[in-house]
Amino acid sequence: MKIAYNLFIVFVLFAFPIYSQKLDSIVVNYIDFYDLTVIDIDCLSFESLLKDELFEFTICNRREINKIYRLVKALHKDSTLSSIDTRLKMKIYSQRDGLNEICMGLHTVYKDGNSYCFSKRLFVYIEKLKAKYSRKKRAG
To answer: Please, are residues 27 and 58 in contact by the beta-carbon 8 Å criterion?
Structure first.
C-alpha cells in the first residue's frame, strides 16, 4: 500500500506541474481591442503613448495564472509577422525570473522579441477576465 501511495505522489508531481510556483502575479494593462489609433502602437511605447486611456487589473488567482501560462506556452511562432499594434500588455511577475512582458494586438502576440500567431483562445480568456474584473481602474 505504501508503494502505491508513493507512486501516486510521484505521478501527481510529474503529471501535473505546478506552474503557479513560478508566477506570482500578472498585471494587465489594456485599451479596447477595437479602438482606432492614428499609428500602430509598438509594445515598448504602449503605456507611455496611451497612459490616459489604459485600464488595468491584476491577476493573483493561481488557476487563472496557470491557464494564461498554458495558453501562452501553446503559442506558435510566426516569423512573417514583423510589427504589432498593441492593445494589451501583460506584465508577468515571478520571483525566479523577474518580469516578463507579453503584448497582444488584433493579429499578433509579441513575447521575448518574437512574434507569435494570434490566439483566439487566449483572446477569449483575457476578455473573460476583463469582464470578471470589471471594477476597472485607469492605470497610471
So the answer is: yes
